[in-house]
Amino acid sequence: MQGPGDPKDGTNDIMEAAHLMAEHLPTRLHPLATLAYNYWWSWTRGGDALFHDLDPERWSRCGHNPVRLVQEVTHSRSAAVASSEAYTARLTAFHDQFEREVGQPQTRSPQDASVTAFLCAEFGVHGSLPFYAGGLGILAGDFLKEASDRGTPMVGIGLFYQQGSFHQRLDTSGWQHEYWLETDSDRLPAVVVTASDGTPLTIRVPVHGRTVSVRVWRVDAGRVPLYLLDSDHPDNTPADRWITARLYVGNRDLRLAQYALLGIGGVRALRAMGIPTGLFHLNEGHAALALVELLREELTKGSTLDDATARIREQTRFTTHTPVAAGNEAFGGDQLRAILPGLAEGTGLTWQELLPLGRTRPGDEGEPFGLTPLALRLSGTANGVSQLHGTVARSMWQGLWPDRAVEDVPIAHVTNGVHGRTWIAPEMAALVYRYVPDWQDAPPPDDPAWDALFEIPDDEIWEVRCQLRTRLGALVREQSVTDRLGRGASVSYSESAARMWDENALTIGFARRIATYKRLALVTRQPERGLRLLTGDRPLQLVIAGRAHPLDDGAKHTVQQVFALNDLPNAAGRVVFLEDHDMELAAQLVQGCDLWVNLPRALQEASGTSGMKSVLSGGLQLSVLDGWWAEAYKPGNGWAIEPDPGLSHEEQDHRDAEQLFSLIENEVLPLFYERDSRGIPVDWVSLIKTSMRSHIPRFSATRMLQDYGYSDVRRR
Ligand SMILES: *Cc1c(COP(=O)(O)O)cnc(C)c1O
Question: Which residues make Cβ contacts (< 8 Å) with residue 566, sequence separation at least 6?
């Protein structure tokens, strides 16, 4: 129960939940309950081990969800752990660190308590919170974690999906099927935010001419709270309860309703919780209806449209993540009126005034209402997510500024970066800490402290690389057997998967959403040559993972085509498709693969981030010069496929596949297999050091937040 002066932002609700859960545990283990309700443990050294050691088998069965673990651990087990002095000492030290790092207030200054609200349709904070589809969500999760580490005042706003994202299963023909699992919200590190009377805070958003009631969940990522809106509320009709059931639901009407909850509901939730917002950072058009809500707030105060627009521009930033036109969603005027009938009236505008705000050419009544044009038009600043994407976005959206030259279109860029402590392999982190002790504080890219990476002895780097490849091998074997059994293969065929994988072979990885523009199919383009490489005397193995959107049959065909490589004579066991790509599998793959491949069609990759994760643990890059790689690559820090966007798609595919195979054959394989007397590929290792030195400092979330102006540039 809350008192009148208490914060309404869910702080007390989290504390109460942790307090209640602590009762499951012996007194000496009580701090575990507090830690379980904040994902900070997941990116802090020693956190995973604390929960693991409480009950190793249950920890893995719980999907590394600490709340479930603490709820389910038996009394005898927890009593045994509580009697270990070593364990309780570790717990106390870790909890003290938590209090020091997370307990600190996070404000701009004593005078300015405002926070940045980061709105996104997906957040990938941890594998146990399945509210992400791919790179956008993972980026959003990394953003919150970095903001927490840097003390940047920020809150996340997203949706709570009762069934999360879909799971993937392939049948024996390699065709993808999907299934959804109910999110067991009582067992997540999430609490329902309550109002001052102790009942769940309810936000109301008009949809279909009805009022949809929405609950607000809070999940903590270090010092940054993430608020997730959930329409599964007893006041709602069954259809309205379904609005937030699934991520990026296929039905267009429901999709629009999701965006209304995220944008309009998001702003209302912040207001209801009394959170003072300085800036709204909107990601993708998904969140753009927040601008209409802000407009409504201003206009109902009596502002003119011009004044209201000017006010809104002061408090908003928009990041576009999609250089493919079809990925920028638009809705017909009729659909908008049907699903959100009160949208215009609520603001005091007519539809004739509102609809043009979402068009490239305001006067063109045939043009649908685009969420990206709306966001670009009303946000104070806008950016793409790599240097090249900035250029592409300026020319894509030039129509919004017909009087300006393309280079003057007001869309800048901030290149994406990844949260190092989440993605680096612990073994490599330990090595990097020894040579760059400041690594956690992320010195700027030009700081000579980073040069110490070159001093790491070759044999130590190589040993870590071999450990990581071996660990990935164990996972590949185990998962391949169960994947095969799951799709109904014979026991002997399934068990044969346990014998594949060569601990010492060059291991190439490709894992991300399977979308057509990512061109995974290029690996199947020259089958004879591919087969020669796979079965040559310098062995190579390929591991692939990724989910296709349930409605994207083209991408599902690609999955099937690649899956068929499993059956090539002699190649069996050298190509593996792992089902149901998620954050946890992604981490193992980026850490264990020697070479990370990306094959986007030129100018269609906004940034790409999995390669940045791979460099952290010493993976080398072979990628089309697009997205981040176009600005990262220099001869000698990886390999590049040089695209020619002027060619037809067929010609591009031919040309790029040719380069892919040639580079592997002529450069990658020889370098990997040329060994010194100790068996170490010294030139390969030297390339790893160059790659780590040039990429880790530049493609970090630390640098990204600095570029956004959210944290200070740190100079030593
Ligand atoms: C990092 C990541 C991605 C993004 O990969 P790209 O290289 O940007 O395509 C997608 N899915 C998961 C699970 C990830 O961790």
Answer: 572, 575, 576, 577
Residue holding tokens 């070159």?
Answer: 454
The residue contributing the CA closest to ligand 1 atom 12 is: 134
Q: Which atom of ligand 1 is nearest to 611's Cα?
A: 7
Residue pair 277/115 in contact (Cβ under 8 Å)? The answer is yes
Does 3 have pLDDT greater than 60?
A: no
Ligand 1 atom 2: residue of nearest CA: 135
488-544 pLDDT tens trace: 988 988 888 888 889 999 999 999 999 999 999 999 898 889 888 888 899 999 999
Question: Residue 607 pLDDT more than 90?
Answer: yes
Is any atom of ligand 1 closer than 6 Å to the C-beta of 583?
yes
pLDDT digits (tens, 9 = 90+) for 56-72: 999 999 999 999 999 99
**Rounded distance from Cα 610 to ligand 1 centre (Å):** 5
The 10 Å Cβ neighbour count of residue 630 is: 22
182 vs 424: CA distance, rounded Å: 31
- Dihedral of the alpha carbons of 251, 608, 132, 706, in degrees to the nearest 10: -120
- Percentage of residues of the chain with pLDDT beyond 90: 88
In the reported structure, the alpha carbon of residue 612 is separated from the centroid of ligand 1 by a whole-number distance in angstroms of: 10
Compute CA 428 distance to the chain's CA centroid, rounded to the nearest angstrom: 22
- For a mutational test of ligand 1's pocket, the pick from 126, 324, 419, 513, i.e. the residue with the most ligand atoms closer than 8 A to its C-beta, is 513
Would you state the structure tokens that stand for residue 156, as one six-digit string? 């996340």
Q: Could you tell me the CA-to-CA distances from 11 to 194, 269, 322, 538 in Å, in that order? A: 10, 15, 35, 57
